[in-house]
Structure formats: C-alpha cells, structure tokens
Amino acid sequence: MPRAVPAALLMSLSLAATQTASAQTPARGGSIVVSYKDDVTTLDPAIGYDYQNWPIEKMVFDGLLDYAPGGTTLQPRLAAKMPTVSKDGLTYTFTLRPGVKFHNGRELVADDVVYTLTRVLDPKTKSPGQSFYTGIKGAQAFVDGKAKTVSGLKASGKYGLSITLEAPNAAFLNIMAMNFAYVVPKEEVAKAGGDFGHKPVGSGPFTLSKWVSGQSLEFKRNPAYFYNSLPYLDGVTIKVGLDPSVAFLSLTRGEVDLLGDGIPPAQFLQVVKDPRYRANILNKTSVNTSYLSLNTQVKPLSDVRVRQAINMAIDKTKLVRIINGRAQVAKTYLPPLMPGYDAGAKGYAFDPAGARKLLAAAGLSKGFDTVLYTNSTDPNPRLAQSIQQDLAAVGIRASIKSQAQSTVIEAAGTKGAAPMVWSGGMAWTQDYPDPSDFYWPILSCRSAVSGGWNWPWYCDKALDARADKADRMVAPGQQAARLNEYKAIFAALDKQAVWVPIYHEVRHVMHSDKLVGTAADLLDPIHFISYERLSVKK
C-alpha cells in the first residue's frame, strides 16, 4: 500500500508491542481528538489509498470480510459467515447479514455489493484499486467497454451473492477485505454528485457529522450499528493542519489524544527517554519496505549491471543510523513479517569497489549523471543526501530533487520522468498479508502504467506468468509450494536489481493518558488505528 507514512511515525522504540494503553475494560462514552498535519483528501473507499485515509474510512464503511482484531485471520463482517468456494476454486458464494442498515436507514443488500465492486472497476471512478478486481469474470471486458455489466458478479435475492473468477486466486478473500470493497449505497453516491468522498454514507460504526476543510472532521457513534457493542466512543474529532511539534505540545496539555503523525523528529529522542511518557508510547514492526527505485526505462539504469552497482554502492547501515537505528536493514524486497519472506536472502553487500568494477564493465568507468527524487519531509532529504554521497563515491553524480510528496509520486508514475526515487515516507506497506501484494501492484507488468506504483517501470512477462500460476495454487497443501514460488520470484527481481531495498521501519504511536486501547487497537497491521475499539478512561 502506498501509505504516505511520515518517517516519525515509523520508528523503533525499546518498548514491547504488547503494551496496552490501559488495562481497563473498555467503557461506552466519551470522545477523543486525533491530530494530523495534512487534511484528509477523501473518504470514498474506492479512491482513498494511504495510511491516513484507510483507518478513517473504516469508521464509516464496512466490507464483507475483515481481520480479527490486531491480526491477519479473516473473519466475516457484513457477511453472515465465511463464503463457500466451488471445487474448481472459481466461485465464492456469500450470504449477507440481514438487517444491516446504511446511515441513511436503508437496508444493505447484495445488489449494493455488486454495485460497489462494479463502481471500483468502472474507469470513470479512477479507482487505484481497480486492478485488484480485474480477475473477476467479465471484469476486464467491462473495463474495456465491451460489456455493460460484470458477468462474474451476481446477486441472488436480498442476501445472496456469488463472485466468479476467471482463474483461481489464493489471495482473493484478502482482496475482498480491502477498503476498496467496502460497500457503498448507489443513491448516496448519485446524490453527492461527484463529491461522495466528502459526503460519505456507509454502514460503519461512525457517521461523519461535520467536515471543515483544512481544520477538522467530526464523527459520531452510529447508534444503529449492527455490532451492538461497538463502537465504544461517542465521538472522534480529526484535527488537521497541526504541525507535529504543535500537536505534541497539545497532547501534553490534554488537548490531543493521539498523534497521527507520530512524535516529531526534533522531540523524538527527548520524548522516548523521558520516563513520564513511557506508558504513552507503543511500537511494532511494520510490514513494509523503504526502497530506492531504479527506472529501468532510463539509460544507463536500463543496464542491469548499473542497477546492481547502485545496490552495492549504498551503505544501508548508515541510513539506519541517520534515523537513530529505528529500522531493520532490508536484505530483500519482502519484509520479515510477510509470508514468503526468505530468511536466507543476503542481498547485495556494501561493496563500493565491486560497484566501480561493474560500472566499468558497463562502459561507465567515468560514472554518469542522474537525478534522485525525494519528498521534502524530514528526514527524507537527509537520507537522500546520504545516498547521493554513496553514489558519488563510485562516480555516480546524482542531483537531488526534493519536492512535495504529490509531485514526487506524479514524477515516479510518469514513464521516463524520474530515474531514481527514494520511497522514504512512501514505503510500500502491506494491503493484505500475502506476498502477491508486494508483486502485482508495484512490480508487475500490469502496474507498469502511467500513474501506477511500479516506479522502476519494470515488466517481465515470464515473472507475471509465474506469479499468476502461483496464485492459482489454491488446493489444500499447496500453500508452502506457493510461498516458495514467490520466494523465487523475488529472488529473480533481486538479481535484476530494480530496487535497492533499504530498510523495514518500525511504527510507533503516542497517545494521551485518558485514551484506552491495546497495541492491537493502535498498531493494527491492516487498519493502523481501529477507532471502533478505542475508549477513554472514566
């Protein structure tokens, strides 16, 4: 997931992730205030796709499936039970919970799910999640304008739903638990007239009561929520436009309960060493990878020897030191907590001399000039400068373009525009716990498109075929073989050196004394923050 995570939010502390904000049993009532520097862009689940949007969308919307609190085990949500699957692994049959109401009072039914997924697939929606659902039968024909409906989506009565795939997909239920598949009411989308992202209506535990652009969003508890015990809070206010340093001071004064952007870098060391705040800070290793992407469509980065040389030229340990050791050096593309991670992977050793030899073999003994993009949020410019120095030591002269995050993303998603991109602050974080999520959205041929997240613009159709074959391994007993195949796929990518995997960050949060919640609530591996399970001391 391209969660634009501030570096301050993803840093390691010496505290155990099993800490709890409070040992109290959650009680109903009260409210909290959460701070962010940037405004929320949209609450349309078909559109919003970053760490800030997703947990807030989860307040308003629900999907057929979700994960057990703080974990990676799927369980039914809007679905009354887990779906049945046909013997050929192609058709999933769901039964919806009866009586679930949208915030407008209308009952949620199977036709709403069909509409929701069709809307995500519709090119007019411009959903970044479209490609996740093109494996549904007839979806590509619909996307291409050759069909008016998606043949693999069928409602049966009010509560019956079948989804048929073109081919088996071992990760399909994970995909159905993504925010993109959160169910929306057609009439409210139409009523919003293109502004559903600011006028969201779902079936979730909270309703949006007020949104003042650039200032705040206010949410109230949904009294008709189908999980009778949830949520605990009566309200949540998201304050935006607060500089992280100002937000931190507000938290110490009791005006803010949760730092959405984390502890500001300037106060970080002081805060984590202060015993007064020890009970207010939680941390957990993130399932993500920060990397330097190398554009394979730009000379001389099109030469694999040059890309390998760059991998050998960068001192990853030094980069981790710059952020005070608050990350784990990456040896491969997958993070350690992702299924399919190769614990035996060694990656490229820091070897400037070897890098110079490879450059000479590529006819570049005098080096070359290139451009390195980075977003301008601290500490990313400092990290980019360290990379620049390492590259200079082997003769690669990289000028740095430090720009707003949106500008960097636009350049990276434009073919030939950005030779190198430091992903710091935009580390790829799991959408769901399956290695396919680190391949199809960011390293496959289908993602090497304008506006996509395949920043190396790398396309290997043979690897796509292998990944597709692996995803069809859905029979009992094939899981180990499937994960081994993904290990081999990422090993092949590593040989092609389309990334320089730098480190895996460790996420932490800081909260007020009154907030009650476990690490599973505040450090959820999928949703980041599970607002529905938070409460306050009475």
TrEMBL record:
Keyword Transit peptide (UniProt): no
GO biological process per UniProt: peptide transport
Keyword Heme: no
Gene Ontology annotations for the cellular component aspect, listed alphabetically: ATP-binding cassette (ABC) transporter complex; periplasmic space
Residues annotated as signal peptide: 1-23
Keywords attached to this entry: Signal, Transport
Domain Solute-binding protein family: 74-447
Superkingdom field: Bacteria
GO MF annotation, one: peptide transmembrane transporter activity
PANTHER family assigned: OLIGOPEPTIDE-BINDING PROTEIN APPA (PTHR30290:SF9), PERIPLASMIC BINDING COMPONENT OF ABC TRANSPORTER (PTHR30290)
Family: Belongs to the bacterial solute-binding protein 5 family.
This protein's name: Peptide ABC transporter substrate-binding protein
Organism of origin: Deinococcus koreensis
